[in-house]
Amino acid sequence: MDAILLQILNGLDKGSAYALIALGLTLIFGTLGVVNFAHGALFMIGAFCAVTLQRILNLSYEVVDATQTDFLGNPLKVKVPYVEAWFGPEMGGSIIDWSVPLAILFAIPVMIFVGFAMERGLIKHFYKRPHADQILVTFGLAIVLQEVVKYFYGANPIPTGAPEAFRGSFDFGVLLGFDPNAIIYPYWRLIYFGFAAVIIGGVFSFLQFTTFGMVVRAGMADRETVGLLGINIDKRFTFMFGLAAAVAGLAGVMYAPINSPNYHMGMDFLVLSFVVVVVGGMGSLPGAVAAGFLLGILESFASMNEIKSIIPGIDQIIIYVVAIIILLTRPRGLMGRKGVMED
């Protein structure tokens, strides 16, 4: 039982990332009808927002420290971060330590700006073009963004630590009545799952309970009728593109301590996220979230040694096998709407 619960936790961790990226993909497709293959790059940019803020906070200058000497007895020069000089060693050290959570505040305006720029500068010209054209142009954009990040940050992964308070592991099994050390799980992965739940709940609440969200949902169902009512639905959809970019970016920010940011991490998640969207049903927000967690849990169980000893390599293909089975039995996915991508 403890092994099963551990795999469920692992699945929720992976599923959180899949669900957040798939949610943004579905928002863009459901509102604008655009198949955005650059969405994985937005996840990557979010992760590098965390890297960038960490580097900014660690900018420092050299001072002579008389309390430290080299082997000749000469005072050593030490680097003091500007943040510590401005706010004091204790406060400044805390700000640096909490750079990843603080990067959320940094990433939100950056990701919204990037989303607006992508939509207004490029994607709006492909609204009425075939989906194949949209895929080609957004995939090309993703490669360009990937190479830009590689140029400025290098090809190697960049370790980005979580706050010191969350770097350990939590004895989750004790809460459920198991023996100590039966289910040990990293704090930050639990934080990530909770963060994903808050973001997903916030997006659904925004669409469900606000006037803006109700108009967007109406526009997703019947864009022409909403336009005839005198509502500028295009501006609202542009905002939704920025919101989708922010969701992907925040997913990347919080994932940085789990998987060290690198220039190809967006592509690593992109294909899996599109599988999640297709399994959940194109244009279905609840389907994208449900499929993300479902496939994350299945992938986690498939990675168990007991399973791999029976079917070698199953952990690498389980998501695609499940996708094939679901699409053969339910061509529209788990919660797909009639008429979406069926013309």
From TrEMBL:
Single GO biological process annotation from the record: amino acid transport
Molecular function via GO: transmembrane transporter activity
Membrane topology category: Multi-pass membrane protein
Subcellular location: Cell membrane
UniProt keyword annotations, A-Z: Amino-acid transport, Cell membrane, Membrane, Transmembrane, Transmembrane helix, Transport
Record gene name: livH1
Species assigned in the record: Donghicola eburneus
Transmembrane residue ranges: 15-35, 42-61, 98-123, 190-216, 237-258, 270-298, 310-328
Protein name from the UniProt record: Putative ABC-type branched-chain amino acid transport system, permease protein I LivH
Subcellular location, principal: membrane
Family the entry assigns: Belongs to the binding-protein-dependent transport system permease family. LivHM subfamily.
Isomerase recorded as keyword: no
Domain of life: Bacteria
GO cellular component: plasma membrane
